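dumping this here before i forget
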Amino acid sequence: MRKAIVALISLAVIGSSAAVAHADPLLVTSGSLDYDSDFGCCAAILNLVAGPVTIADFVTGDPILGAGANLSAGTSVAFNVHVTRFGTAFSGDQAEGDLQFLSTPIMLPLNPASMSRFEFTTPFTMTGNLNARTLSGTPVFNGAVAGSGSLQVFLRPVDNTAFFLDDATFTFAAPAQPTPEPGALTLIGVGLVGASTRARWRKRLARSNGTEAARRRTV
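structure:
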């Protein structure tokens, strides 16, 4: 019975893991994308860890929404970043790719002149593709990546009608631990019930055979 249970669990876990490995993108487990107004409208520093990939690089792309322009008070704004170009890596792996950071929009407050600085935090998601290799040229990873976390933004008031983007940091959160797929759990449950039923049947058969043998010896 114990061997049967172990075999069923192993098959279910292997099957479930194989499906996830083929279907899901590589998840970012830690890191950040840091923008500062001193970088201009289109540049940021990317630090990223995802599976075997480690990136520390100066990246550029489409203008960050709000960078280099005044943002009207009382409007809803989403601070998004589209990374399309990677520089020479500071350390870790050299990468190429396309990464889209999308944040949940926030409502800018009215009367900016009444505050010295406005700070807020909002969730974000990141999806895209990476082609990473070591600095010596050995391939590391080539495929889809994804991540999520929180975006922290600092705005400075321009006057009483608008803000200016001072800096922004997208900080990745560690992904939640995966749970077994319902199909795998069902398979394990059915296997355990079947193995238990078979064991009880064998015990009853053994007791029945033992009783019959004892009766014959008595006769």
